[in-house]
Amino acid sequence: MIDFYLPLSLKKQLMGERNKLYRLAMSWCGDRMLADDLVQDCLIRAWQKRRQLKDREKMHAWMYRILHNCWMEHLRRARPTTDLEQVPVETGGSLEGKLEQQQLAARVRQAVGRLPLGQREVVTLVDLEEFRYAEVAEILDIPIGTVMSRLNRARKTLRTELLHLQTPVVREETILRRVK
User: What is the mean pLDDT of residues 38-57?
Assistant: First the structure.
């Protein structure tokens, strides 16, 4: 009787991961439709292979591993695109503040999108999804030293590119002249 309810609770857990998986897939591929397809494929595979999951506490990493495999399979079949779509950013405040936030987010997405694939995967898993290095190494099936090296190079590249965004705004000084 317990086995009957187990798949239902697992199904809920799998569907609960959908938004996180979509966000990660979107950061990897930059295409909303492709990200949605990757997530759907990931969820289908996870459901089909649910009996392989021995420890429910590792489900999060297991799901990301499946998503990574779906992404690698897609890359083997087709060339990746580098166009990044605008994802609206919800912020409070003025319209100018919202526009500024959207422009900044778009620049960051573009900078991340220009990273080599391996660096992009590592930086999104560590910095966006907050996985530990060992978990990223397991998900991507690479040594932990490679994770640290790729992350270091990715962060240096992003830091260099994004520091240019912080250039101070130069305002023109008003010169007052005395008129007689």
Answer: 86
